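As a warm-up, study this chain.
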Amino acid sequence: MSVELEKKIQTIELKLDYLEKSVSTQLAQLAEIMKQGFLMLVLTAISVVAIPILGYLFLQGLIDKLFFGVALLVVAGALGFGRGIDHVAQLIRVWKYGNGHH
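Now compare it with the structure written out below.
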């Protein structure tokens, strides 16, 4: 085999290797984003369902003011916690992978 052909093959192998790493990094980022999005969706859905139910129970006199207040705080905390996790994950992504600018 000629030296020139060998060099071309090595170059192609290097490019393929780089491409493979790049794609796997992108897929890992996408999976992370989807995971965070799903967590936020679940927390939001819980709060959207929980708040009216809590309000109804409170208005029916089935739960007292203290329980109602604590439950609302917990729901709001879950939402805030979800957003907090999302921000931390975003910071980690930026720190780990950069801004996406190579």
